[in-house]
Design a protein that fits this description.
The protein has 123 residues and is an alpha/beta fold. It has five helices and four strands; from the N terminus they run βαβαβααβα. The radius of gyration is 15 Å and the shape is globular. This is V-type proton ATPase subunit F.
Length: 123
């Protein structure tokens, strides 16, 4: 039985982004950035000094927030927390892997594409 998911709110839904500085800057320039009253951001800049634990915590926090509809994560960052992404099974927020300027998109690593192929019966 399908569960109804309410994705509407008075203020609208947000995107969350976990990626390198250049990718985050592009999304911020496009107006995606948000800082709430508790000083919580909807993005995490990941660089070589960012620990895997920090990335995991940010992903889990974003996926638990009710105001986030989509989590965009660069494929390079996603590869560091693949086990956490694989365990995420809620439809909202959706998790979409995106390329970064340093790493091209690799469809064989995309967790969403793997799930679609599994459901559709393509191996």
């Amino acid at each position: 039985m399908a569960k109804n998911v309410n994705i509407t709110s008075a203020d609208g839904m947000l995107l969350a982004v976990l990626a390198d500085e250049d990718t985050i800057t592009g999304f911020l320039l496009a107006g995606v950035g948000n800082v709430d009253l508790r000083k919580k951001k909807n993005y995490l800049v990941v660089d070589s000094k960012t620990s895997v634990r920090t990335i995991e915590q940010a992903f889990k926090e974003f996926s638990a927030r009710e105001d986030i509809a989509v989590i965009l994560i660069s494929q390079q960052v996603a590869s560091q927390i693949r086990h956490v992404i694989a365990a995420h099974n809620k439809p909202i927020p959706s998790v979409l892997e995106i390329p970064s300027k340093d790493c091209p998109y690799d469809p064989s690593q995309d967790s969403l594409l793997k799930r679609v192929k599994l459901i559709a019966g393509f191996n």
